[in-house]
Amino acid sequence: MPQLAIARSRALVGVHAPAVDVEVHLANGLPGLSIVGLPETAVRESKDRVRAALQQSGFEFPARRITINLSPADLPKEGSRFDLPIALGILAASGQVPVAGLEKREWLGELALDGRLRPVPGILPAALAAAEAEHALVIPCDNAAEGTLAQRAQVHCAAHLTEVAKHLLGETTLPEAAAAAPPPPETSMPEEADLADVRGHHQARRVLEIAAAGGHNLLLVGPPGTGKSMLARRLPGLLPPLSEQEALETATVASISGRSFDYRHWRRRPWRAPHHTASAAALVGGGSQPRPGEISLAHNGLLFLDELPEFERRVLEVLREPLETGTIHISRAARQAEFPARFQLVAAMNPCPCGHLGDPARACRCSPEQVRRYRARISGPLLDRIDLQIEVPRQPLAQLDGPPGESSAVVRERVTAARARQQARQGCLNQALTGSLLETHARPGEAGRALLARAMERLHLSARAYHRILRVARTIADLEGEARVCARHVGEALQYRCMDREPP
Q1: Which of 37, 79, 115, 409 has a CA-to-CA distance to 140 between 20 and 30 Å?
Q2: If you ran DSSP here, which 8-state letter would residue 39 be given?
Q3: Three-state helix/strand/coil letters over 276-298
Q4: Can you list the alpha helix ranges (DSSP code H) found in 272-390?
Q5: Exposure string over 233-263, b if 16+ CB within 10 A, otherwise e
Q6: CB 8 within 8 A of CB 135
Q7: pLDDT grade for 260, boundaries at 50, 70 and 90
Q8: Rounded CA separation 308/385 (Å)
Q9: DSSP β-bridge partners for residue 302
């Protein structure tokens, strides 16, 4: 009778799913079960779930000394994902199912006490890794839709432990999960309010279009009630749907975070809007077992920070590195993880503590020192990373009663065309232009360089701000279909740096 069996599975480390061999050995001695290989609490507790599930499913739990090794032993294991391979390893080692049936397959799933299979997070990266290894993957039925997103993966689903056992015994065959047809791009756009609902705010509408076309970060500054949040929430409707690769990356982050997957939103760009009381760990991720934060959940989408100065300064400072690199590295004493964080930052704030600085309708009660302290909550290096900074003033009644402007669909067509020009020319959006690519594609003419030099001297702009102005100017030129950046493009880009000017 076999006394050793190996069932293959997958751990979860960041967005990766390294292979884990669940080695089960039965030996003579006092009955007992021990799990080795750096198991976390949920993994150690699996022995009780597995024992009950086997007994309730009509199988014999061996009265032997059972040792379960999760290899590699130096990789921490967490979660309930190893319940199914542990149960199958025990069944195979005790001769209740054939050992050969475990080969060329990988197993993931949590066991209920009655043997039912429950869903686990991180199925998508495991399915991608299993496809790369040319192994079939067996998962709970509730994870089937997510597993089939890995198009090259052979995914089988089961609802109960007995179904898996009968499959290994050759009595039945586990059904292969069928991939759902992806929704067409035109029906996968977010159901946001249309840009046509915005009356007036001509400059803000223009800046939203520029931000969408080039992927630029945006800051809206204005008194309370002028429409900053309303404008920000219409930006997703100006963006084209996710590409297949972007959608797969976004779904992977959602998978490891344990969020439920809705296939209707396959091509929808993420929109995250954390409250200003959020901690640094909530934004960037963390914990003893690192999990993605808001910036990773906004990967390939938008992160909206309303009331920007109300966030703690140390919380805002953690955004600086991922805004530049598009990734976040989280290091703990025993664990390290890397998560993608390529997001577009959209923020809103009042111009002063009382909110009415520069408001013609209400007088500001703040002293110049109070205004400076308020704005100092946002550091210069962080402001440098925000390409577009504009004021959103109060609109007169005549504007509010005026005719609606262009709809989101019309603006989205221009945005999509501008993005296509950028991808064809340089292989990335203008927001990501660096080094020689920036010099080659965004260098203005003599008049534009002279204008930018005067602005650098008067406003004391940093080199980073200089480069971001060039990127915005390049986007403005793309929206106009211009091959070269002209002085008027630079001049317009300079208008959108309101935080570089001293408050009145």
Answers
A1: 37
A2: B
A3: CCCCHHHHHEECCCCEECHHHHC
A4: 280-284, 294-297, 313-317, 320-325, 368-375, 380-384
A5: bbbbbbbbbbeeebbbbbbbbbbbbeeebee
A6: yes
A7: low
A8: 14
A9: 271, 344
**Both tokens assigned to 187:** 């029906």
Rounded distance between C-alpha atoms, residue 41 and residue 82, angstroms:
12
| Closest residue by Cα to residue 339 from 294, 305, 303 | 294
CA–CA separation, 491 and 498 (whole Å): 13
pLDDT in tens, 181-217: 665 554 444 555 789 888 888 999 999 999 999 999 9
pLDDT, tens only, 289-299: 788 999 999 99
Q: What is the C-alpha separation between 344 and 301, in angstroms, rounded?
A: 6
Q: Are 9 and 82 in contact (CB under 8 A)?
A: yes
How many Å separate Cα 121 from the centre of its chain?
15
Both tokens of 40, joined, read 């976390």
In whole angstroms, what separates CA 356 from the centre of its chain? 35
List, for residues 393-433, the tens digit of each pLDDT value: 988 777 777 778 889 999 999 999 999 999 999 999 999 99
Q: How far apart are CA 361 and CA 338, in angstroms?
A: 49
The DSSP letter of residue 116 is B
Q: How far apart are CA 418 and CA 184, in angstroms?
A: 22
Name, in order, each residue with C-beta under 8 angstroms of 149's C-beta and a sequence gap of 6 or more. 124, 127, 179, 248, 251
- Cα(285)–Cα(17) distance, integer angstroms: 18
Q: Which domains does the chain have, with CATH numbers?
A: 4-169 (3.30.230.10), 186-500 (3.40.50.300)
Dig out the tokens for 493 from the structure: 């880009």
d(CA 143, CA 9): 15
- Report the alpha-carbon distance of residue 180 to residue 147 in Å, rounded: 11
Whose structure tokens read 């198991």? Answer: 39
DSSP code string of 121-138? S-HHHHHHHHHHTT-EEE
Cα(389)–Cα(333) distance, integer angstroms:
39
Measured in whole angstroms, the distance separating CA 34 from the mean position of its chain's CA atoms is 37
CA angle 189, 190, 196 (to 5 degrees): 95
Q: What is the pLDDT of residues 464-482, one digit of tens each?
A: 889 999 999 999 999 999 9
Whether 9 contacts 107, CB under 8 Å: yes
**First-to-last C-alpha distance (Å) of the chain:** 86
Residue 429, amino acid = L
Name the pTM for this structure: 0.89
